[in-house]
Amino acid sequence: MRLTHLLERLEYEVIEGSDVTCVTELINDSRKVTKGCVFVCISGAVSDGHAYAKEAAGKGAAALVVEKEVEAGGDVTVIRVRDTRYALALMSAAYFGYPAEKLKVIGITGTKGKTTTTYMVKSILEGVGHKVGLIGTIEALIGEKSIPANNTTPESYTIHKYFAEMVEAGCDSVVMEVSSQGLMLHRTAGILFEIGIFTNLGEDHIGPNEHKDFEDYKRCKGLLFTQCRLGIANVDDPWYEDVFRDATCKVETFGFSKKADLRATDIEHITRPGYLGVRYHVNGLMDFDVEIDIPGDFSVYNSLTAIAVCRHYDVPAANIQKALKAAKVRGRIEMVKVSDEFTMMIDYAHNAMSLESLLHTLRDYNPERIVTIFGCGGNRSKTRRFEMGEVSGRMSDFTVITSDNPRFEEPQDIINDIITGIEKTDGEYIAVCDRKEAIRYAIEHGRPGDVIILAGKGHETYQEIRGVKYDMDDRVLIREVLEELNEQKGKQTAGR
């Protein structure tokens, strides 16, 4: 294909060579450069693709797309654009034949609730015959194929590659999580979303490698609503108006407030042995009862979001009710059977806002005790550790502090930061660095009526230590602990 085809929706300047040169592939990783490709030089947080421009030319790249001056050398075309990340997004769309234009694209942004809501929307729409792709924190789903995710919102090339595969698989729609980082880094640039959704906003993802401050975080969330036809917003969120300040789309709202276009009323918490759930009534733009097997008000918000989306697909109320009743998401308040006396669940709550929301929710079910097991990731903001420690100390009856993904930090140093936060409260705690042993401690000391939360990792099946990801799944750890405890109990019984 000619380079002009890939550049047709961009403003650019030809620095060297010709824009009608033929190229074979679109590449943004210097390690993957092939003869005849166009290499897009991305300025990243860790490395800068411009530093590898000459190397790429030496490997046979036919063209380079840059935003800075480079020393290319050789017979290579050099194209200059204002922003190479933005260019990569539009070039990727062109490279794969603009697949987003062949799908109804639904984008969900917000601090929490994105993952659960994407699965709810997919489930409801597929229940009435739509074929729906999914891109999110846990995985990308294309037909029967599941691809584990590295980022909530992948790089733009990957997004359009997935879109193209979805079109090939017969999908008519795709629901995807749209992170603030994805918006900031132009990963979704050029995509016209059919529907954009705002769930909520909390002070997360603020740090040197994320957003410089909360204002920047809000601004980036708001970018979604400059590139969609319809925006659906949680009117109860205090930052709703800020996020939608520059919106160019039509707007609908949902929430508990009377001013919401679609609202939840008559909310009732349901408790049965080994079961926590919620039921409510939908008013406003639709009118029916809902019951879901996931506890709490945030589950009401998540399901209400899904209803607000699916209303635009003319899904009957009965289909929505059935799909929501069956909705379950790995690592999102995922109940794990460990005892007839107390409840244990796995949840991805990995920041203060999500943990506080979860603990507040569970308090509404009047447990005897809330026991929270969690750690924090290494090479991330220390503020998150202090805040999570303080939240757990204040809202849990007992906390077991353990390791999460230490990355390049010492696990004990991270634990010590969490302790700094928890000691601002009167909360009782113990530190058990080994995650499996922390789980064992909580189970062995579980009391009747307890709710034990294993927080932080959720759907993740690894632990990252010094750049290496080791297999580690909370479900497997729980199962191993239970097997070992049963074996121990059997030996004690046999020895009597």
Question: Could you explain how this protein is built, in words?
Answer:
This protein is α/β, with parallel strands linked by helices. It has helices at residues 3-6, 53-58, 84-95, 114-126, 156-168, 180-184, 214-222, 240-243, 297-310, 317-326, 352-363, 382-395, 411-422, 435-444, 474-494, and strands at residues 13-16, 26-27, 38-40, 63-66, 77-80, 104-109, 132-135, 139-142, 145-148, 173-177, 193-198, 228-234, 250-255, 262-272, 275-284, 288-292, 334-336, 343-347, 370-374, 398-401, 428-431, 451-455, 462-465, 468-471. The longest helix has 21 residues, at 474-494. It starts with a helix and ends with a helix. The mean pLDDT is 94.
Please tag this protein with its features.
496 residues, alpha/beta, Udp-n-acetylmuramoylalanyl-d-glutamate--2,6- Diaminopimelate Ligase, Chain: A, domain 1, UDP-N-acetylmuramoyl-L-alanine:D-glutamate ligase, Protein-Tyrosine Phosphatase, Chain A, 3 domains, six-stranded mixed β-sheet, 24 strands, globular
Secondary-structure map with pairings?
Elements: H1 3-6, E1 13-16, E2 26-27, E3 38-40, H2 53-58, E4 63-66, E5 77-80, H3 84-95, E6 104-109, H4 114-126, E7 132-135, E8 139-142, E9 145-148, H5 156-168, E10 173-177, H6 180-184, E11 193-198, H7 214-222, E12 228-234, H8 240-243, E13 250-255, E14 262-272, E15 275-284, E16 288-292, H9 297-310, H10 317-326, E17 334-336, E18 343-347, H11 352-363, E19 370-374, H12 382-395, E20 398-401, H13 411-422, E21 428-431, H14 435-444, E22 451-455, E23 462-465, E24 468-471, H15 474-494
Parallel strand pairs: 2-3, 3-4, 4-5, 6-10, 6-11, 7-10, 11-12, 12-13, 13-14, 18-22, 19-20, 19-22, 20-21
Antiparallel strand pairs: 1-5, 7-8, 8-9, 14-15, 15-16, 17-18, 23-24
